[in-house]
Design goal:
heterodimer; A: alpha/beta; Rossmann fold; seven-stranded mixed β-sheet; four-stranded antiparallel β-sheet; B: mainly alpha; MetI-like fold
Chain lengths: ~300, ~250
């Protein structure tokens, strides 16, 4: 199992410059051959805390995502992984460093990078179709085009018969799929997902993993998927990045070289998840310690 | 069904008591009119068109005044919600001004605008704009931030963001303010119309007083209540029901 996956380590305790170099050295051959789709360069974020100091949330994040890659980011809660997604989306500015997509600097939100929020952010005053059509309407697509595209993606997530429902009438899993269809309808270059399945029951989650993997294969989108669930990361990702607890740094990355389609019960997936979890455990412990002894 | 039955019994009893009291002639009819007298006033009022004209004039005024106060209130509420400074200064002033009965603006209005439609509109707008402003501000602030983030991510900016996201997202919070604003506007209007020959329902009420015609006074009062009730049922109840259909049971808690 372990032999089926290569893992690369960035040692802790190095100076920043060294770490930067070693991170660059981690770039895989195929990622350097073609320009990376998303290039996160030395991104740091700090904000003023309640006692007046500046709190470092993200520290020197270096990250490349290949076009068409499915990248998962795992980390304990509070490691800044959601914030990193917001920064890549352009909804949040880093204190230093930059994000490039297709060699263009990200300086605000754009429909070419769609984020599926943890809370989804579906619009309850609109029907399912109207939600999916929302971004297309903002982009001034014709009524007919909008309708066709919405229908196409609603069919893809098996929700076409619920097109006229309102959001509150849907189950959690269905809402999830509306959010996915709304994001896909924009045909974004990069799809960013922030713990989208965290609130779902296990059966629904397994089902959505299958659907997401199928849709990803069908559409060839670049996906950055944040989760705290290592099984989920091993099940879905081409590559899994482990982040440290506060300040968020990249601790280690795992290549998940397993055949697709995968199943969450596959022993190879479970083995991979175990490796990732081992790496993550010390960070989770740190976060728990902080929670129980916040002032130590 | 049970509710309708109870209400029917209640109003039948009320009418019966009224008939008996009027029949007993304890007070003269110019103090306590008979139901028949009031009905006759209503009938003649509609037959000679004076009620229709008054209703038309009053509804036109309220439509203009209320639209103005919704537009101003929404804009002002958004402005207050956007700045802590404005909220603490202007916002505080608005809350304290709300304790001022709208009719208190009338002397000022008459001095500024004379005995004119403008004076009445001024009172109507000032009477209702604060309710709309305060609820819009609260709505903008209580509304989950995620809607604006998602809207921006999907390409909504500036006015588009406002009309397609911020405004609809704050409607569940705004609707109570709109309703209260309407009630205040309607009251302010009738009060304002009483002061001069304004052709509205308020003036009809005063005309009844001038002619010592209690039947007309009561008839017009019934009209004012009825119109308020119909507008509430037709517009605001519909709006609340539609919001509930869309958002689910308790929109403000989502």
């Amino acid at each position: 199992m372990i032999s089926s996956s290569k893992s690369l380590t960035a040692n802790e305790g190095q100076s920043r410059g060294d770490r930067l170099k070693s991170n660059l050295a981690l770039v895989r051959p195929e990622a350097t051959a073609a320009e990376p789709k998303v290039w996160v360069r030395d991104v740091s974020l700090s904000y003023p805390s309640s006692n007046g100091d500046r709190l470092l949330a993200l520290d020197g994040i270096e990250l490349n995502v290949r076009a068409g890659e499915f990248l998962c980011i795992v980390g304990p809660s509070g490691c800044g992984k959601s914030t990193l997604l917001h920064i890549i989306t352009g909804l949040h500015r880093p204190t230093s460093g930059s994000v490039r997509v297709d060699d263009k600097i990200v300086d605000g939100p754009s429909p070419s990078r769609i984020l599926i929020f943890q809370e989804l952010g579906l619009f309850p005053w609109l029907t399912v179709t109207e939600n999916v059509e929302f971004g297309l309407k903002m982009a001034s697509l014709s009524h007919k085009e909008r309708e066709e595209r919405a229908a196409h993606y609603l069919r893809m997530v098996h929700l076409l018969q619920f097109r006229d429902s309102y959001i509150h009438q849907l189950s959690g899993g269905m809402r999830q799929r509306v959010a996915l269809a709304r994001a896909l309808a924009m045909e974004p270059d990069v799809l960013l997902m922030d713990e989208p399945f965290a609130a779902l029951d296990a059966q629904t989650r397994d089902l959505l993993h299958d659907e997401l993997e199928r849709i990803w294969a069908e559409t060839g989108r670049t996906v950055v998927f944040v989760t705290h669930n290592v099984r989920e990361a091993a099940r879905l990702g081409d590559r899994v990045i482990v982040m440290t607890f506060r300040p968020g740094r990249i601790k280690r990355e795992f290549l998940v070289d397993l055949p697709r389609p995968r199943q969450i019960e596959d022993s190879s997936v479970a083995g991979m998840a175990r490796d990732i979890l081992e790496e993550l455990r010390t960070e989770i412990n740190k976060s728990l310690e902080q929670e129980y002894h916040p002032h130590s | 069904m049970k509710l309708a039955f109870r209400q029917l019994i209640f109003y039948a009893l009320l009418l019966a008591v009224w008939i008996v009291v009027a029949r007993l002639r304890i007070w003269p009819p110019y103090m306590v009119p008979s139901p028949q007298g009031v009905f006759e006033s209503l009938r003649t009022g509609f037959v000679d068109h004076s009620f229709w004209i008054a209703i038309g004039v009053s509804l036109k005024r309220i439509a203009i005044g209320y639209s103005l106060s919704v537009a101003i209130g929404v804009a002002l509420g958004l402005l207050l919600a956007s700045s802590e400074f404005l909220e603490q200064t202007l916002g505080g002033l608005m809350v304290s001004l709300q304790s001022l009965p709208s009719i208190c603006w009338l002397p000022m209005a008459v001095l500024w605008f004379g005995l004119s439609d403008k004076a009445i509109l001024f009172v109507v707008v000032l009477g209702s704009v604060l309710s709309v402003t305060i609820s819009m501000e609260a709505g903008r602030k209580q509304m989950p931030k995620i809607y604006a983030l998602a809207g921006r991510n999907l390409g909504a900016n500036g006015l588009k963001l406002f009309f397609y996201v911020l405004f609809p997202a704050s409607l569940p919070y705004l609707v109570s303010g709109l309703k209260q604003g309407w009630a205040f506007a309607w009251r302010s209007l009738i009060a304002g119309e009483m002061i001069f020959v304004s052709l509205g329902l308020g003036q009809l009420l005063m005309m009844g007083r001038d002619l010592n015609d209690m039947s007309q006074v009561v008839a017009v009062m019934i009209l004012i209540v009825a119109i308020g009730y119909i507008v509430d049922g037709l517009i605001f109840k519909t709006m609340e029901r539609r919001l509930q259909d869309k958002w689910g049971l308790s929109p403000a808690t989502q």
